[in-house]
Amino acid sequence: MAHADLAAGIERLVLGNGDGATEVASMPSKKNQVLVSHGRPPWYGEDGQRICDAFVIGVAGGSASGKTHVARQIVKKLGSIPTVIILSQDSFYKYHTPEELELAHANLLDFDHPDALDMPMFAACLADLKSCKQSNIPIYSFAEHQRLEETKYLYGATIIIAEGIMALLDPALRALYDLKVFVQCDSDLMLARRIKRDVHERGRTVDGILDQYLRFVKPSYDNFVRPTAAHADIIVPGSNNEVAIELICTHIRQQFQERAARFRHKIAIPHLYLPLSSGASTPECKLEDLDLSVLPQTPQVQGILTILRDQTTSRQDFYFFADRLATLLAEHALQFLPFVPKSVITPVGAEYHGQQPDTQFLCGVTIMRSGGALERGFKRVINNAPVGSLLIQSDFETGDPLLLQAMLPNYVRQRHIAEQTWVYLLDSQIGTAAAAFMAIRVLLDHGVREDHIIFVSFLVARTGGISVLRGAFPLVKIVCGAVDDHITEGWLEGYKGKGNTEGLRTKVWLIEPGMGQIGDRYYL
User: Fold this and answer.
1) What residue segments make up the domains of the chain, in order of their start?
2) What is the DSSP code string of 95-135?
3) Could you tell me which residue ranges the Phosphoribosyltransferase domain spans (predicted)?
């Protein structure tokens, strides 16, 4: 049979195969996806140290066996799950020389041999993601047969699904998996799927696909891929696999529940749940023990705080004076940056010996959304620094923080630069300190040094979670406009979210006297 006739027959086979085939054939090919449904819960304890890794699933199988489809079905079946990353082994093909590129375009280069993949790099990236660090994944172009210069930033996974034909071959990779899956599929169906995928998505010809399949793909499957099924914890059929996927999802849900770290209630009222520090005779935390840098309480500062605390203050006035206080705080925080001498010539021709910040990399990170009230003040003081954001909200059911989105500056995304970067971390107040815990932990996971973090806030509750935060991260500098004495349970009206679709009252922690819901007052 001619290759063209065979391709037409195979296309009819794929589209008429039933449950799995049509979906796989029509699904767009997207590698290294980050899927977020309800946020990343805490992965650390009240001491600030990591207590659990991401849950990693290795999915192997022949080319076009349905590995990506199985991975996506797992995500779909899990439903309301935290952040999931689907990491494809296809991204880790080695960089090709001009001679190798010539062979690749002639379908004479073996992409199905283990030597074609950069296994150490794959294991290193996966190890970083598993240990809750960021990773920059290479991007491979199938049309050009080449690894591109740019990379894809990935971070924040609770569950990682690593899929590829050789996913179970390397012992270093297998050691990282919490669950190993092999997708077993009929060889005729795999060939049919491969032809349709490569023609539609990768611009290949049928002749080239068949020649490559017979020359490289089939021998590789027999010699390297199929034997790795012996390492799998579970073997999943390439189609009609709903029962197997449900079993996998049940196991993942159980593991996720066992790894949950819930401690916000402990840090909200630390003296009720956590042991007193050595030598302490009272649960009341003394201000001098917190090592805070409080803005000098000048008449100007006290006047601004009075206006901001007044619930009758107009939005326009609140906006203006919040920006003014944020500017003063950003200026006050400059003292924690390193400085070096600098001499300048003044307009009258005289020489002046002064100082300038000795920071090659400096950026701001806002904890959304109330932290946005400090962003304008930061930009007024340091107008050339990039600003990123972390979206952290409370889970309605547990009260624990959830990391919903991380839009961090490039300085922080690259670990070799993050180690030299100074970060202004901006949030309007530290009450229970739950959001502060998560934000600091995110920066540390990216490689930012603890003593390079300057946390800037309008208010701090002395009897809230600040004492636990200082114990966990003693090298972080905390700059605030004022320290309030009390934190109490209260109610937030009309919140709608998971488990509270009708917008009923939600229990929250309130600083007294405080400033109310600063984000709402600033933006609404």
Assistant:
1) 3-259, 288-341+354-523
2) PPPHHHHHHHHTT-S-SSSGGGB-HHHHHHHHHHHHTT--E
3) 296-490
Q: Pick 288-341+354-523's CATH classification: 3.40.710.10, 3.40.50.2020, 3.20.20.120, 3.30.70.1150.
A: 3.40.50.2020
Q: Do the strands 293-294 and 477-484 form a parallel or antiparallel pair, or are they unpaired?
A: parallel
pLDDT at 81: 67
pTM for the predicted model, two decimal places: 0.84
Tokens of 94: 């080695």
The whole-number pLDDT of residue 197 equals 84
Tokens encoding 449: 């040094």
Would you place residue 11 in the very low, low, confident or very high pLDDT band (cuts 50, 70, 90)? Answer: very low
Between helix 315-333 and helix 299-309 the angle, nearest 10°, is 140
Instruction: Measure Cα distances from 304 to 296, 381, 461 in Å.
Output: 13, 19, 18
Q: Round to the nearest angstrom and report the end-to-end CA distance of the chain.
A: 69
How many residues are listed for the chain in this entry? 524
Fold of 3-259: Rossmann fold (3.40.50)
Residues 6+ apart with CB under 8 A from 2: none
Q: What is the pLDDT of residue 271?
A: 60
- Secondary element (H or E) of residue 68: helix 67-78
